[in-house]
Amino acid sequence: MTLAPATPRRTGRRHDREIIALALPAFGSLVAEPLFVMVDSAVIGHLGTPQLAGLGVAAALLTTAVSVFVFLAYATTAAVARRVGAGDLPAAIRQGMDGIWLALLLGAAVIAAVLPTAPWLVEAFGASDTAAPYATTYLRISALGIPAMLVVLAATGVLRGLQDTKTPLYVALGGFSANAALNIGLVYGAGLGIAGSAWGTVIAQCGMAAVYLAVVVRGARRHGASLRPDAAGIRASAQAGVPLLVRTLSLRAVLMIATAVAARLGDAEIAAHQIVLTLWSLLAFALDAIAIAGQAIIGRYLGAGDRDGARAACRRMIQWGIVSGLVLGVLVALARPLFIPLFTADPAVQGPLLATLLVVAVTQPVSGIVFILDGVLMGAGDGPYLAWAMVATLALFAPVALAVPLLGGGLVALWWAMTLMMTVRMLTLWLRTRSGRWIVTGASR
């Protein structure tokens, strides 16, 4: 009996199943992460305004510190997926352990830097005299959990590379539940105040890291992979992460410049900008989930030496990105009048917010393509190009954004500058994808 050759439709359906199986759990785990801060805010908010303000400053510093090292997840996913595609599971897990050891080393370095400088960091971030002591307390205690947070990033990358996004979802949900219970118990039951909230987060993050380590160690023993730190492997993981670090810092700089410009436009504009940025980030979670699936799938195909499979998967994921962007854009455009009152009742804020969200809605298909191509190139291990492209985008965006208040533009003009930034990213990523230079097969790039 001769099997019928795979048709484009059947191939597309196979890719669809793979994307859905990886993207849906990834979306759940991504959404669960910011819930940690939301729980802390809800619990501490009842202690008083200074405590809540202190949490806001400390949480912003912690989020920035941890997000800088997100390359631990991205680089590890790509490297592990390649070895999975090559059929070498012991090497895949060994590669993942190198990323975890690197996470521990970086976490220790961050603790050493944050503990003595916490008061200065809080002051530099503009905390008031009443909020600063609470911010310092929360920052110093929570910093003890940074190694665990970074291990969670690296271990998440290991499991994604192994084509498993369900375990990270379960761990994230368990960590969120534990964090909520610990916060309530330590803040109110034990009477520890904001320190109790910080300790609750540290314990929950350590618990998540312990679960991840147990899963990875079990897999290492099953496949005979070494768990010992390997200097060469750790160094290779760090080298692979440097370009992604540059990319992430450049992207953070874009967001910081946009916020600084919005602050110069006036109180109503910065308030509206923060709401828009929050919703923009929420939309990004949905698109990033597909990109995460792309990292794992593309890395596996390239590791297996399947160039055609990688190209076909890339094309299908671009279609997913465009359709997802269109759907999200329509939803934002239609739902604007409904959810804006949930954020603010101030007409001075609602006006620019209504108009700016329309710009965000129009941009969503572009964002969909950007996120997908970003994930494809990450999965291919094409970090140096991603770094160069993002630095070039930042260089173009900065003068345009800074010119907005000088030319009398408002928040809408600023977000058109953000649209320009996303369009430039799309063009640079599309040109690279079209060139085919990202298609490098083998167990390592």
Automatic annotation (TrEMBL):
Keyword presence, RNA-binding: no
UniProt KW Cell membrane keyword: yes
InterPro entries reported for this sequence: DinF-like, MATE_fam, MdtK-like
Membrane topology: Multi-pass membrane protein
Subcellular location: Cell membrane
Membrane spanning stretches: 19-37, 57-80, 100-121, 141-162, 169-191, 197-217, 244-263, 275-298, 318-339, 351-373, 385-407, 413-431
Keyword terms, alphabetized: Cell membrane, Membrane, Transmembrane, Transmembrane helix, Transport
Pfam families reported in the protein's UniProt record: MatE
Domain of life: Bacteria
Family: Belongs to the multi antimicrobial extrusion (MATE) (TC 2.A.66.1) family.
NCBIfam families given in the database record: matE
Protein name listed in UniProt: MATE family efflux transporter
Lineage of source species: Bacteria, Bacillati, Actinomycetota, Actinomycetes, Kitasatosporales
